[in-house]
Design brief:
- By secondary structure, the protein is mainly α.
- It has one domain.
- Helices cover 70% and strands 0% of the residues.
- It contains 13 helices and no strands.
- α3 runs antiparallel to α9, α6 crosses α7 and α10 crosses α13.
- The longest helix has 19 residues.
- The chain is globular, with a radius of gyration of 19 Å.
- The termini are far apart.
- It comes from Steinernema carpocapsae.
- Keywords: Signal.
- This is DUF19 domain-containing protein.
């Protein structure tokens, strides 16, 4: 029996089956994410937390439409940089975590963050512009909501059977928090954005649960609950 070297078997598998081996996944990430953050005037390492990077983005958005244009230009460069490494942002976060030397949880937040950017610069751009003034007027509160909603959902991360519940909790928390600080339209935008981001960053199996979330119009009673939630978030920031 002829025993082929492992390297030959791997190369043949890639050629015939058309997939990248684990060793190839996220090879581009180290450079691409470093360059992306440099565009936001942040030098790595260390790599910023989700809340910190959202804060950097919020600072650029203070320039309104011009700020959004700048962010989308930076995002397009990042997407082109990662064009040959799509599995890195759409699959398991473990490979990205290894490349950046961060936790799987932090890597998953990076996946979600970049998926949010795709939505904001694509199908969600018009809705973002419609709500941009409120996000600018309440920049600190906005960053606080996004950070706290993730923190409130963390207890579920250790139970694989409840990951979809975590995705739902995160999405509804963002919806209700932004409804309280801005208006229903802002909550609807954040809800739709998070559903899109979660679907494309490792939570595709949660589609049945995410589909049931109502992002649109809200009753007075539900809005009252949202105000209560937002008050809790601000107190705990």
């Amino acid at each position: 029996m002829i025993v082929l070297p492992v390297s030959v078997v791997i190369a043949f598998s890639e050629f015939v089956l058309g997939y990248s081996t684990n060793g190839d996944i996220c090879e581009s990430a180290l450079y691409c994410i470093k360059e992306y953050l440099l565009e936001l005037n942040y030098a790595t390492p260390p790599y910023p937390s989700y809340g910190a990077i959202v804060g950097l983005k919020a600072g650029v958005l203070r320039n309104g439409t011009r700020g959004l244009e700048k962010l989308c230009s930076i995002q397009l460069k990042f997407q082109n940089c990662m064009a040959s490494d799509q599995q890195c942002l759409n699959g398991t976060a473990h490979f990205l975590a290894n490349q950046l030397q961060i936790s799987d949880e932090a890597a998953r937040d990076y996946q979600i963050y970049f998926a949010e950017n795709v939505y904001e610069c694509g199908t969600g751009r018009r809705d973002l512009l419609d709500n941009l003034q409120c996000f600018r007027d309440h920049q600190n509160e906005s960053v606080g909501i996004m950070t706290k909603c993730r923190r409130l959902s963390l207890p579920l991360r250790y139970d694989p059977s409840r990951r979809c519940k975590r995705a739902v909790n995160l999405t509804t928390c963002l919806r209700d928090g932004f409804r309280a600080v801005c208006r229903v339209g802002a909550g609807e935008f954040m809800c739709n954005e998070e559903k899109v981001a979660l679907r494309s960053s490792g939570y595709a199996d949660c589609e049945p649960q995410l589909k049931q979330i109502e992002c649109g119009a809200v009753s007075i009673g539900t809005l009252s609950l949202a105000v209560t939630l937002f008050s809790f978030i601000l107190v705990s920031v």
